[in-house]
Design a protein that fits this description.
With 569 residues, the chain is of the alpha+beta class. It contains twelve helices and 27 strands. The chain is globular. GO terms for molecular function: cytochrome-b5 reductase activity, acting on NAD(P)H; heme binding; metal ion binding.
Length: 569
């Protein structure tokens, strides 16, 4: 992806200019580019003094009634919305919510006229085409009037004309994966108001289409660049966007849906998609208009429930449509063949293992586990394991489908045979009962991990450290092991702890060496009370480990008057 050609200050200063007047004009152009409120050369206007993003934040916090409703939530019909389309009285709707943008007009980096294009209408399509990544709900929070309770009639040609006028010669941002190596270093809160309108120049968006499909009926996506009205696939809304090099298929579930997503390749133009959440399964056949490169990247934004599939195009061009999407009754519920390709030692007898599929990519929900068994075995025996993020691996291949942390037992009927790699295994996904809504409203967490019971907490810690919906103030992770050599991922965990002060990790050994300086003993009332005495009281407690460990942990928490605990089983 190439940024649009635009003269910057160096180019202007280095250009050969014979006329002083030309030089002055070019200097003015430099000032226009550099004076953008967001530092974004795409902006078409110079904001007046006192109208920066920070000035808008101050206005929002000043107590001014920006919505004009005195704090009341008022449902708005489409007919009423259409009456408010002037500079002096401007409303617009985005994703079913109506905002009074009258006060915000002069703060809009793209200019008043640009924002007024959506005034008096449902501007969702215009917003998505220009900057769908902007957190408009936070930016316009104080401007919200209420829900849009009926659709307004919008001219099809008018919408097409509006979208055709949107400049898309900008560079697309790489997908923001929920679990990435950025969590090894401290980051500022990307949801802070100062960052709400960052990176507008970093994304190129293609024309948007939405499609409805019904069982046993195929609906082709528009290939004539006409817009469909807002529709839904069952309860899983679909959208798409593109650049000349990439196409992104987007599915909207619900907030905190914690979905399971699986994509299987049949060919470079034929894919099967399965999305599971809330005891529901949505299965689709996806046929891109042209060939794409597999595998793609899957990004899940937990707070919004948005799922994005990022494909690189085999041939770089702008497509007329995204292809065809239709319902599919196909769903692989049983075991699927995978290959264990590599392993990395993370404890005395515990290994991080790389699991690979040649035809599938999978995103697992937080807190879920899979069942694994050998492909060729006389014993039909499966064990549960929790997928973990690659962040906790040092040397395993990045192109792996997913990773499991497995403890190897010399006499184990399954794990004793996992030493000769590569090895074919069968893996089955299980239903995830862990509800992310259980974490909302809690800011202090306690995690009790016995041995490999650490696994489900790894991805969960990463999620809580970057959670935007509710501030995480403290996480206390207590790892119980026999000896120091049994501690799992100690160096990696300490790295993350060093980068994030809100995370505290305590290692407790039942059989420590004489020079062990940290906590000793098994989990009990006195030791846990001592560890927690100098910590904030955890309002949410989680437990994972062997059955005996979990029973003792639950009993201990009850003695400490903790009752809001969750056990991973």
């Amino acid at each position: 992806n190439q940024m649009p050609e635009m003269s910057n200050s160096n180019e202007l200063q280095n250009s050969v200019v014979e006329d002083k007047g030309d030089l002055v004009n070019k200097h003015i152009e430099i000032q226009k580019i550099q004076s953008s409120a967001t530092g974004n050369p795409r902006n078409k206007t110079i904001l007046a003094p006192g109208h920066s993003l920070m000035d808008w934040i101050r206005l929002c916090n000043s107590g001014t009634d920006l919505s004009g409703t005195n704090g009341k939530c008022i449902p708005i019909e489409g007919k009423e919305l259409s009456k408010h389309s002037s500079k002096e009285d401007a409303w617009l709707a985005i994703r079913g919510k109506v905002f009074n943008i009258t006060h915000y007009l002069k703060f809009h980096p793209g200019g008043v006229d640009e924002l007024l294009r959506g005034a008096g209408s449902d501007a969702t399509l215009l917003f998505d085409a220009a900057h769908a990544w902007v957190n408009y709900e936070s930016l316009l929070q104080k401007c919200m009037i209420g829900p849009l309770i009926s659709k307004i009639s919008t001219s099809q040609a008018h919408l097409n004309k509006q979208l055709m006028n949107i400049t898309k010669q900008t560079k697309m941002r790489a997908p923001t994966m929920q679990l990435n190596n950025s969590w090894l270093s401290p980051k500022t809160d990307k949801n802070s108001s100062e960052n709400l309108m960052r990176n507008e120049t970093e994304r190129e968006k293609g024309s948007i289409n939405q499609v409805m499909t019904k069982n046993d009926v195929e609906y082709s996506i528009n290939s004539d660049n006409k817009l469909n009205t807002q529709t839904y696939i069952k309860q899983c809304k679909f959208d798409w966007l593109q650049t000349s090099t990439r196409i992104i298929y987007v599915f909207y579930t619900r907030k905190f849906s914690n979905p399971y997503v699986r994509l299987e390749k049949k060919s470079t133009k034929d894919f099967r998609i399965s999305i599971q959440y809330d005891h529901s399964t949505f299965n689709f056949t996806l046929n891109p208009l042209h060939e794409v490169i597999f595998p793609c990247d899957i990004s899940v934004t937990y707070y919004t429930g948005k799922i994005e599939l990022y494909f690189n195009k085999a041939n770089h061009s702008i497509w007329e449509s995204c292809g065809m999407l239709c319902d599919d009754e196909y769903f692989r519920e049983g075991y699927e063949k995978f290959v264990i390709t590599h392993e990395e030692k993370v404890g005395r007898n515990t290994f991080m293992m790389s699991i690979k599929s040649s035809s599938s990519i999978i995103h697992f929900p937080l807190g879920t586990h899979v069942l694994m068994k050998l492909e060729e075995s006389s014993v039909d025996y499966a064990k549960p394991y929790t997928p973990v993020s690659q962040i906790f691996s040092n040397n395993l291949p990045k192109d792996s489908t997913f990773f499991l942390m497995i403890k190897r037992y010399a006499a184990g009927s399954l794990t004793s045979r996992l030493s000769s790699l590569p090895l074919n295994v069968l893996i089955k996904s299980t239903y995830c009962s862990f509800n992310l809504m259980h974490l909302e409203g809690h800011s202090h967490f306690l995690m009790l991990a016995g041995g490999t019971g650490l696994a489900p907490f790894l991805n969960l810690i990463l999620y809580l450290l970057q959670r935007k919906s509710y501030l995480t103030e403290s996480i206390m992770l207590i790892c119980y092991n026999s000896e120091e050599e049994d501690i799992l991922l100690k160096d990696r965990l300490c790295q993350i702890q060093k980068a994030h002060l809100k995370l505290t990790i305590c290692f407790v050994l039942t059989k420590p060496h004489s020079n062990w300086l940290e906590q000793r003993g098994r989990i009990d009332y006195c030791s846990l009370k001592k560890i927690l005495s100098s910590r904030p009281i955890p309002s949410c407690q989680m437990i994972c480990g062997p059955p005996e460990f979990e029973e003792t942990a639950i009993s201990t928490l009850k003695k400490l008057n903790f009752c809001n605990y969750y056990t991973f089983t």
